[in-house]
Amino acid sequence: MSNPKHYQLIILGSGPAGCTAAIYAARANLNFAMITGLEQGGQLTKTDKIANWPGEPNEISGLDLMEKMMKQVRNFSSDILLDSILKADLSKRPFYLKGDADEYSCDALIIATGASAKFLGIPSEQKYMGRGVSACAVCDGFFYKNKNVVIVGGGNTTAEEALYLAKIAATVTIIHRRDSMRAEALVIDQLKKTTNIKFELNSFVTEILGDEKGVTGVAIQDVNSNATKIIEAQGVFIAIGYKPNTDVFAGQLEMEQDYIKTGYGAKTATSVPGVFAAGDVASGYYHQAVIAAGSGCTAMHDAKNFLSSLEK
Ligand SMILES: Cc1cc2nc3c(=O)[nH]c(=O)nc-3n(C[C@H](O)[C@H](O)[C@H](O)COP(=O)(O)OP(=O)(O)OC[C@H]3O[C@@H](n4cnc5c(N)ncnc54)[C@H](O)[C@@H]3O)c2cc1C
């Protein structure tokens, strides 16, 4: 270890959780740095339209919203570091972080590294991303009023998102590669009772179809017979899960399904005193920007209380 740059507080991540924590840290006059990671502004920068950010009555693009948040951080602080953390040692204080560009140490750490939505990995998915392809029914369902949509996946999240979409869209077709869904029996019952929900089981998406306006349908293939067919739809929701960005901390913090567990005393406190987690990285359920921002604010207050306790 050479001579790491030391800060009272380091915030990892520049999504809504990281930016909000940074704004509050600056206003609390803490000596802190925000390390942006490779995705400056976080995953919201991937989406075209956001209609549920309070205070933005007209739709705003994710990129514009996150540029505004980053600008607000910059107004208060110059310690925004364009680096990505590859290694961490949380076994003793100060905590040590090794980045791609530099090394750092801190007395308190807020982890706001998010959780990346998993995608199918077919080329047409990227082509129509934000033009009919989405990984978030709660975020984008609104844009498919009285339209036909498909949702890909078979777990509880898929089932809940399908029920959510069924209240908005004309039809919702669930595409799942197994012969039954993995969701809870009660939820599956609800799906079956919802008249505009259809099932394409034992099937997987081979291609997302579209034109210059966006998605027009999906091509699916039966896993047993290899038979193919096309389902017409204007929206394709991918609900096959999330991968929390926690590899760097594996074995050092208590986790549940790779999400960082919190609530050890303070709301955002992790199993290691002085380390806090905010946003999607700590929540397997709520993947919403406003919730991430709120928890970034909470994490900064928890971190500030922890730092004050060190001075006593
Ligand atoms: C396509 C899409 C559309 C969406 N639409 C909406 C919407 O309309 N409304 C809504 O409320 N929500 C929406 N969401 C969800 C929303 O984007 C997330 O809930 C929110 O961004 C989570 O914020 P976060 O700060 O926790 O994490 P993220 O925004 O994921 O940010 C994580 C940050 O951590 C950084 N990072 C990761 N690893 C490292 C590392 N090793 N070192 C340093 N930094 C690291 C990344 O660079 C990034 O800056 C959408 C998501 C997607 C994918």
Structural description of this entry:
- This protein has helices spanning 16-27, 62-76, 123-127, 137-140, 156-166, 185-193, 289-311, and strands spanning 5-12, 32-35, 80-81, 85-89, 95-99, 103-111, 115-117, 133-134, 148-152, 171-175, 197-200, 203-211, 214-222, 228-232, 235-238, 242-244, 255-256, 259-260, 275-277.
- It is of the alpha/beta class and 312 residues long.
- The chain folds into two domains: 5-116 and 242-311, FAD/NAD(P)-binding domain (3-Layer(bba) Sandwich), CATH 3.50.50; 119-238, FAD/NAD(P)-binding domain, CATH 3.50.50.
- Strands 1, 2, 3, 4, 5, 6 and 19 form a seven-stranded mixed sheet that branches.
CATH architecture call of the largest domain: 3-Layer(bba) Sandwich
Specify the helix fraction band.
25-40%
- Structural class comes to alpha/beta
Q: Largest sheet, described in full?
A: 7 strands, mixed
The first-level CATH class name of the largest domain: Alpha Beta
Radius of gyration from CA coordinates: 21 Å
- Structural domain tally: 2
Low-confidence stretches: none
Shape, principal axes of CA atoms: elongated
Distance between the termini: 29 Å
Give the beta-strand count.
Answer: 19
Number of helices: 7
- Provide the list of bound ligands, each named once: flavin-adenine dinucleotide
Average pLDDT for all residues: 94
